[in-house]
Amino acid sequence: MLSYGFMQRALVAGVLVGLLCGVLAFFVVLRRLSFIGVGISHSAFGGVAIGVLTGLDPFMLAAVVCTLVAWAIGWVSRRGRLHEDTAIGILFSSVMALGVALISLSRDYQVDLFGYLFGNILAVAPRDLWLLLGATLAVLTVIGALFKPLLFVAFDEEVARANGLPVDALQYLLLTCLALAVVAAMRVVGIILVEALLVIPAAIGVQVARRYRAMLAVSVLSAIGSALSGLCLSYVLNVAAGAMIILVASALFVVALAIGRGRRERSRAALAVAQGAPTVS
Prior knowledge:
Elements: H1 5-30, H2 34-54, H3 58-79, H4 84-103, H5 109-118, H6 126-145, H7 147-155, H8 157-162, H9 167-197, H10 200-208, H11 212-237, H12 241-274
Helix pairs in contact: 1-6, 1-9, 1-10, 1-11, 2-3, 2-4, 2-9, 3-4, 3-9, 5-9, 6-9, 9-12, 10-11, 10-12, 11-12
């Protein structure tokens, strides 16, 4: 399996996407940005449609459209004129509808549509790997340099603002990183499923880790593990790689949920014993 060049590139892409999405998922879950991620990922279809229709690079245009939509969501939510979920619903449905209208004008839309919507990690080219590596390094550099301020804002935005942190700038920066991650992961799992990689890994971390740094580590490891395991299983079972990656991540979440529940029950039992209360066996 590893003797094939396309499989080697797919494995590298899986590691990079897992690393990128695992780190960002930590902040997405902490800041409850899951629905914003849905809006950004679905908006990528508009950029793809413009690229297919004009002959320009669909991924570059998707990055531009996703970034603009992310900023628009942030601006509307900060202004408070609309509820955030309302703004997201309007923006992503409008941009995606525009994408459907534009891509239907292309004669090759049926071929391109499947690849962009559901991904094709086995078709990753060397150029795609370089772009993915660049996006991953850029996002990780930003997150690494601003980890403490971003974590502070995630804990308590008002206190962070009172302490002089540029909360709005950090919010827009995080949204930009999300937009880049969506476009980077689009080749691997597609527009429809990319949001799962920005939520499930951190949700696993929440269940099994007690400290935030441990939660981040679990998020990254589960994202990378899901990508590699899903890719190998898809090769063996001859099913879509993107879907199998998400199915593996979902299975890991179910296991983590059981572990977390068992831990909470043991903690309650230990607390009851410490307080002298009877326990139910």
